[in-house]
Structures are given as structure tokens and as C-alpha cells.
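mind reviewing this fold:
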Amino acid sequence: MPRKVRDLIRDLGDAGFSLVRGGKGSHRKFVHLRYSGVVTLSGSDGADAKKYQEKQVRGAIEKTEQ
């Protein structure tokens, strides 16, 4: 069963990512001091997360832990 977008947002918040302005519609941008780039998530909170979104979030969190 796929995870929900709200779960990915919670994971990013727990890892120290911050929500920044600039997303259009259902898009949200997250930044971290130790991650060069932006993690963008689309979809409403209750929507199923896409596999590429889960992979992007997991990779971003791993890079901040190094």
C-alpha cells in the first residue's frame, strides 16, 4: 500500500526540512541547510505518494544524515 503525501511531509519535517514559499497549487517546496537543492512534493495531504516522490524524499533525508 503506497504511503500518503502527509507521511512524506512528516518525514521531511522530522529530518529538519523547512517549507518555503513558492509552490503553485498543491506543490510544496522543502529546503535543508545540508541539502543542496529543493525537494518538491505535489498532491493533497491524503493523496497516495508516487514512487518517485518516496525515492526523492528518502534520498534527500539520507544526504542530510551524511
Q: What stands out?
A: The mean pLDDT is 94.
